[in-house]
Design brief:
heterodimer, A: 312 residues, alpha+beta, Cyclophilin, nine-stranded antiparallel β-sheet, seven-stranded mixed beta barrel, 5 helices, 18 strands, elongated, B: 220 residues, Gyrase A, domain 2, 2 domains, 4 helices
């Protein structure tokens, strides 16, 4: 095993946070799960470098960071497409790449998508908060002091076997196990729990028209804009539980898809829930990108979930 | 509330959760059924259960579809509901919270008094009188929504929420009262503050309050 070492932040990029698989079991206390918005890319990056699938890695948003690794390691970048270099060498996405000690990892131009995940062999080893290293910015906890990374930060890395540069070369995440990123993705939803708060026309509007991401899209949720969805009567409910994927419709009829840092309860009726397998597609959308919704049965949603768990 | 809905009902929340709705109202008896059902599921977990979120009028039940498919979980929840009908409702713990009312940092006590047409002292006495129930924790970590506010104290929330409400703040919004465990933005009318640490991640039980607890405010 190599010595414990750090990952140094030279330039943090726009919004780079430490995320692991998320905080489980605290929703009843009002604590959201947090964790990666694109869990498929996150798990793939970890798997490629030999980490457990829930090891802590970096979520990188729109503009990437510049980092220095203190020890030799394997890295993998998955998700949004960036030009990435380790020293002078390009780092292909969805690949395990051997990096020498002291090399500088640079994220350059972003070509598509919104969020990339950088996993490093050994994972990031910060103290956990309520059982998780996931950063929750609104609560100011998790990750590094509950905040986004800044220049000068040093993240401790967990122990990992010293990588063999020859053996590790060429590990690629299969294309058919990556999310089918596309422009204007169709997000599959299970209708409910409060679809009966909307007129039949309102539900049809939701399923038949395109919605655009607004600039109010962050880790808490994505506010969409399009044809207003008509409520049948009351536009509010007595607050009930919310999950990542819940589609809330406030009185203005414009849907909001709740994401990993969501409020745990909410008082707007929820017309549907985006299935977990399709949340990565939304995570990679940018403001003004379009999405559509398609209803599936609960059985279909669970089959998609099984495929997700099996990495298929 | 929608007309012609029969409760309780079990509604899908995506592929890995159900909401069990007991009604659509802020009501103490209804909320007690939620906590009773939650306690029943904690005592006798159904296969695949991951975590639950009690709210005013429903229980969100998150489960692992790899362990229990939707139909099996729906049946298990319906069975648990059938047993619940005859079960006794457990009484929550009684937690006393010392409160300093009307300090400099409690900007809204006078406004609440003016709105209610009573003195600030009367607001304090009325607010400290009941034994409240923690209906749910939510929106923000540890924020406790309490049932049992005397009607005479109902005051609308602020037109413009504050960007930061300090932890320990005790507030009123509409017919509800609540306590902030963390500093968050908020629109509740703040009438007092407790020094009691409501959230400490280093403690074995990080949150001082849990849903279903009973709470009494003790004026300092």
């Amino acid at each position: 095993m190599s010595n414990l070492a750090t990952l140094e932040v030279l330039d943090p990029g726009l919004l780079t946070t430490v995320q692991d698989a998320g905080r489980k079991g605290w929703a009843r206390y009002g604590v959201p799960p947090s964790g990666p918005l694109d869990e498929v890319a996150f798990s793939a990056a970890n798997a490629l470098v030999g980490n457990p699938s829930d090891a802590a890695a970096l979520e990188i948003t729109l503009t990437g960071p510049t980092l220095r690794v203190e020890r030799e390691c394997l890295i993998a970048v998955c998700g949004a497409t960036f030009d990435v270099w380790a020293g002078m060498l390009p780092v292909p996405l969805w690949h395990a790449v051997y990096v020498r000690a002291g090399r500088i990892i640079t994220f350059g131009t972003r070509l598509s998508g919104a969020r990339a995940y950088l996993a490093i062999s050994g994972g990031i080893a910060l103290p956990s908060f309520l059982g998780s290293q996931a950063t929750y910015l609104p609560g100011g906890f998790g990750g590094l002091d509950g905040r986004a990374l800044r220049a000068g930060d040093r993240l401790p890395l967990g122990a990992a076997p010293t990588p063999n540069p020859v053996q590790s070369a060429g590990r690629i995440w299969p294309v058919d196990r990556r999310p089918p990123y596309m422009l204007q993705p169709t997000l599959r939803v299970v209708l409910g729990p409060q679809d009966d708060y909307f007129t039949a026309e309102g539900v049809a509007t939701f399923l038949d028209s395109a919605y655009q991401l607004t600039s109010e899209a962050d880790r808490m949720g994505a506010r969409l804009q399009g044809l207003p969805i008509a409520h049948r009567g009351p536009t509010g409910i007595v607050s009930d539980g919310v999950v990542a994927g819940s589609v809330q419709v406030p009185p203005d009829g414009q849907p909001i898809v709740m994401l990993a840092d969501h409020q745990t309860t909410g008082g707007y009726p929820k017309i549907a829930t985006v299935i977990r397998a399709d949340l990565p597609l939304l995570a990679q959308c940018l403001p003004s990108d379009g999405v559509r919704f398609a209803a599936v049965t609960l059985a279909e949603a669970q089959r998609a979930f099984s495929n997700l768990c099996e990495g298929g | 509330m929608l007309p012609s809905v029969r409760y309780p009902r079990i509604l899908p929340v995506g592929e890995a959760a159900f909401t069990v709705e007991f009604g659509d109202a802020v009501d103490e008896a209804l909320n007690r059924r939620v906590h009773a059902f939650d306690a029943a599921l904690q005592a006798q977990p159904v296969p695949g259960l991951v975590e639950t979120v009690p709210t005013y009028r429903s229980l969100l039940v998150m489960y692992d579809p790899q362990v229990s498919r939707a139909e099996a979980m729906r049946v298990a929840l319906a069975d648990a509901l059938a047993v619940l009908a005859t079960a006794e409702l457990p009484l929550g713990r009684l937690v006393e919270i010392p409160v300093c009312y009307g300090g400099e940092a409690d900007p809204d006590l006078a406004d609440v008094a003016a709105h209610c047409g009573i003195t600030a002292q009367a607001v304090i006495e009325l607010h400290a009188q009941p034994v409240y129930t923690v209906a749910m924790l939510g929106f923000a970590p540890g924020f406790a929504y309490l049932l049992g506010l005397p009607e005479a104290l109902a005051t609308p929330r602020l037109a413009t929420p504050r960007l930061r409400v300090p932890p320990g703040s005790v507030g009123i919004a509409g017919a509800q009262t609540g306590v902030y465990a963390l500093a968050t933005p908020g629109g509740w009318r703040i009438i007092g503050r407790t020094d009691r640490v409501l959230f400490d991640p280093g403690r074995a039980e990080p949150f001082a309050l849990r849903a279903g607890d009973r709470v009494r405010f003790v004026p300092l």
